[in-house]
Design goal:
CATH topology of the largest domain: Rossmann fold
Helix content: 40-55%
Shape: globular
Number of strands: 10
Oligomer: single chain
Number of domains: 2
Largest sheet: 6 strands, mixed
Number of helices: 11
Length: about 270
């Protein structure tokens, strides 16, 4: 495997506050890697650096060998690196289909002319028709085809997160960054999302995710990268991370919620 994403000794400072210090790791092609850590560890800050929303104070990020420093988020997306966000951002009064259509327009999605698409739509099919076909195909793939004509605000929380994934996939990424994708989901919604993550990987898309749901992280990840106070403290497969004393100490030192997360991580791997 070759590195799709390389984080090279990245540091981020906000005045005198060090948010990230000397962060370095690679994500190999075809992997599912999770970035975890207690609250305030620097996970979302790292995502923002990788996707151009935040400029690092030092270090570099490379995607497929291309340095990302100085690039705008839309330029990084066009290189093939897409992301979702912690909070859903649907237009609640528009239909699910229209939400994806708006996203396709916003991202400037390119709809390739293929013999099959020409046969379905006609060789002179309008751009809007092609965008609609693409949006419908994406919704079908994430399991929302039967909700396409409903208002997005009527969808359950987990379904709204799936709309966000459809938007990210519309950019045809080589790598997808998922920021707390199952946060707020119930157990059933989480199981659906885990299956989707695996299906995305099967389509050749590399995945990096930030998540607090430790059973889900342990189940889906090939490797786990652990941050604490902005520093890399551990990296490796789930069975190594769940028993790493440095990781356990980092979680156990952060209060009851973190203690529960650490306990869940251990139980998930032993189950």
């Amino acid at each position: 495997m070759s590195a799709v994403l390389s984080v090279e000794h990245v540091g981020v400072r906000f005045g005198g506050l060090v948010a990230i210090a000397d962060l370095h790791f690679d994500v190999q092609e075809g992997e599912i890697v999770s970035l975890i850590g207690p609250n305030g560890a620097g996970k979302t800050t790292a995502f923002n650096v990788m996707t151009g929303f935040l400029k690092p104070s030092q270090g570099a990020v490379r995607f497929r060998g291309t340095g990302l420093r100085g690039l705008q988020p839309h330029e990084i997306t066009r290189l093939g690196l897409a992301r979702t966000f912690q909070r859903t951002s649907v237009f609640p009064d528009d239909t699910v289909l229209d939400n994806v259509m708006i996203g396709l327009h916003r991202h400037g999605a390119r709809i390739s002319r293929t013999p099959l698409l020409d046969a379905l739509l006609g060789r002179s099919g309008a751009s809007e028709t092609r965008l609609r076909a693409r949006a419908e195909a994406l919704l079908d793939w994430v399991g929302l085809a039967d909700r396409a004509r409903e208002k997005a605000g009527a969808l359950a929380y987990g379904e709204q997160r799936l709309v966000g994934v459809a938007l990210a996939l519309a950019t045809e990424p080589a790598m997808l960054l998922l920021d707390e994708p199952v946060s707020g989901m119930n157990a059933s919604e989480t199981r659906v999302f885990v299956r989707l993550i695996r299906q995305i990987r099967e389509r050749g898309i590399t995945i990096l995710l930030v998540e607090h749901d430790m059973p889900m992280v342990m189940e889906v990840s090939d490797r786990i990268v652990v941050l604490n106070y902005g520093r890399l403290i551990a990296e490796g497969p789930p069975d190594r991370i769940r028993s790493d004393p440095t990781v356990i100490e980092a979680y156990l030192g952060q209060g009851s919620a973190a203690r529960q997360a650490a306990a869940s991580a251990r139980e998930a791997v032993h189950a």
